[in-house]
Amino acid sequence: MSCLFCRIVAGEIPASKVHEDERLIAFKDVNPQAPMHVLIVPRQEIAGVASVPESGDHQFLLNAAKTIAEQLGLANGYRIVINQGLDAGQTVDHLHAHLIGGRKLRWPPG
């Protein structure tokens, strides 16, 4: 457990948690791209989408995103982003989803 998100999951690095359960932890991004920007991270260390096993904590990401969005009052809409690899902007090799909202989002994103 040496990656940044593993250390946050382990409690070694503090985070502004908005949700936590036995499978996931969700916390505010330190470099938010919108008024609400939350990272949803499975406790199970998985490098990224290309490495997901058939079962595991990652299966609960979308349900958690929906629940967290409702709790944060993002009724007007939100975006869920999962980056895979350097060319897509993945900077931490631990599967995670960005839940972004709180303003009108543009398309294409970048």
Question: Could you characterize what this model shows?
Answer:
A hairpin with a 3-residue loop joins strand 1 (17-20) and strand 2 (24-28). A five-stranded antiparallel beta sheet has the order 1-2-3-5-4, covered by helices on one side. The chain has 110 residues and is α+β, with helices and mostly antiparallel strands. It contains two helices and five strands. The mean pLDDT is 94. It has helices at residues 4-9, 61-71, and strands spanning 17-20, 24-28, 36-42, 78-81, 97-101.
Features:
alpha+beta; globular
Strand line-up of the largest beta sheet = 1-2-3-5-4
Proportion of residues in helical segments: 10-25%
Question: How many extended strands?
Answer: 5
Low-confidence parts, pLDDT < 50 over ≥5 residues?
none
Shape: globular
Order of helices and strands: HEEEHEE
Q: Please give the count of helices.
A: 2
Instruction: State the secondary-structure class.
Output: alpha+beta
